[in-house]
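Journal club prep, notes for RB
We'll compare a predicted complex against what the paper describes. Inputs for the adenosine-5'-triphosphate case:
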Amino acid sequence: MINGDPYVTQVKHVKMIGPRRAEQLARLNVYTVHDLLYHFPREYIDRSRLISLYERKPGDMVTVVGRVISCQENRPRPKLTVTKAAMEGDRGLFYAVWFNRVHIKKMLKPGTRMYISGKLVKGFGNLEVQVHDFEIITTGGDSLHAGRIVPVYPATGGVTQRMLRTFIHGALEEWLQNYREFLPRRVLDGEDLMILSEALKQVHFPDSHALAERARRRFVFEELFLFQLQLALLRRNIVRVEKPYRYRPSNELIKKYIAGLGFNLTSAQRRVVREIMEDMESPHPMHRLLQGDVGSGKTVVAILTLLKAVESGLQGALMAPTEVLAEQHYLSLNRSLAPLGVRVALLSGGMPVKDRRSMLEKIAMGELSIVVGTQALLQDDVVFNKLAVVVIDEQHRFGVRQRGSLQKKGVCPDLLIMTATPIPRTLSMTAYGDLDMSVIDALPPGRQPVRTYYVAPGELPRVFSFVARQVAEGRQAYVVCPLVEESEHLDLQAAENLYQKLIENELRGYRVALLHGRMKRADKEQVMQQFRSGQVDVLVSTTVIEVGVDVPNASVMVIVDADRFGLAQLHQLRGRVGRGGDQAHCILSARLRSREAAERIKAMKFSQDGFYLAEKDLQIRGPGDIAGVRQSGMPEFRLANLIRDRDLLQAARRQAMALVNADPELRAGEYHYLRLALERYSQRGGGYYHIG
Ligand SMILES: Nc1ncnc2c1ncn2[C@@H]1O[C@H](COP(=O)(O)OP(=O)(O)OP(=O)(O)O)[C@@H](O)[C@H]1O
């Protein structure tokens, strides 16, 4: 045992790791002893019993030891390189074969001893192993690398598996004693979890596959538990605070606004508004998530929430994830609130310094009632006079950190978070476990399902003729081209070409406009304004219209290259039509190059329910798709996988809530190490959302 704290001790102090190795390990994000011990294997190879090749059948996965006798590289076809090594095994000759590993031959010098894992095949009477994985045996003790279940780590150039095993083994020997169990006894027992020191041993050098799995389970739980505990504590902080402002009971402004809407609120909207108003009238800050499918009428609810503050002489802020969205919100708020005498402002990033300064002054004086902007609203120089409520249109871009930073700013306003893309019910509690939940679960009356079709790109001319007929009947249409991220330029080109083609052919004589992200703000606004007021029939656009656009007379959505969009995005886009009473159509044109693309289109044709599609999206992507989880807005974890580990997630949440309910400060002596672990976890920014 060594004195010191594994969380802060640099990894170069572990035996056999010097400064040079430490630099290489840094590339694996391993800086401290703790990082090293929490560098978990990505898989294991079973070398506990090396069974002779002669006792195995073709098709079996095998692991054997062999010594290279000779090696040959062939290129039977232009894109195929076959490297074949003759090897001496325990009872004679066999061949090891690599496909398309062009540099492998250099490593296979005669005399080299290695472990080989792969598939056994019979080739012309010889035994042959198609290699999946191999490891060169160097001199020295082999007990870590053979005769056992052996860990395989995420590695990087220069750091080999054998080195990692040796380093980690050394670190375990020296440092394991320094690890204190921090999960409370009750939790360990209740969830039948392996204790920390045992789990650290078993996760790296397991005595059996079952024990490796139990160890993994403990670390997954640990990660989810700390995350949930963080949320539970965030929530507890909110509940304890008393708001500095109270709202007046009068609702004149709200009534006026509702009277001017031209429709009645749906019962789902009314219920949600009631939930929000009750929160706002309570002495503690609101902390609520508003979920609702596309077109379900969230904007109205957001406006009512902000008006409640204005009504009482207080201020409200609306935060959007991007400038474009902030602009759109600003325009729509201003349109409906200016007539009521409510002063709304847009605080945008690109403002001239002078304008910004004067706007900040007005915000500080309380002359502006509602301020719309991006997360720039959180900057230090933005000081409100009486900020009572913040509505965050989240769109999956903000996260726990932002919620925390509002609190840190010393303000504890009422908080309403809106998400436009429904989150699968089973997952929403992970990311939003600290929030109360309101769901608008019904669409306004009179909406008809959008008819959804798939066409091959060759059929597009026919589709545009259909668009022309609809326009002739007085409807409006969107034509969307995908955003090619690598090249904004190409993207623009595609939209421009299509626009030219349409005005010369199928849509000649109609009023067609082009909209893209590179246009000046004023020009964009003008085009949108024209489309909204019906002066433009067809809007050809890149994805700038994805969210927030609301033109009820638009009834056709054509999406070109629909295979480039994710399911959530397609659903968002389709949600731009079918917002009025007319029958709406959505036409998806794509080349179906992959199974996933085909499945997405199928799901779109099958369902209009955002919650269903969100679940489906995760299914199609599969649990291994980290990027998919990221896009869905979920926090990222090191080990836990929110789909595979759903049960553990629920357990972690239950335990975290119970703990905070029983001891809201985690004051009891037995929680000393838990408090420490939690502190470290949040310092590392554990389990936050991907921002951007
Ligand atoms: N109760 C209602 N009855 C009829 N129409 C409504 C009702 N509530 C909202 N609408 C209208 O439905 C359309 C969609 O509403 P809104 O823009 O608020 O949806 P949203 O939930 O914000 O959708 P998205 O996430 O797609 O932007 C708007 O044209 C709005 O005026």
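Talking point for the session: DSSP finds 22 helices and 20 strands in the chain.
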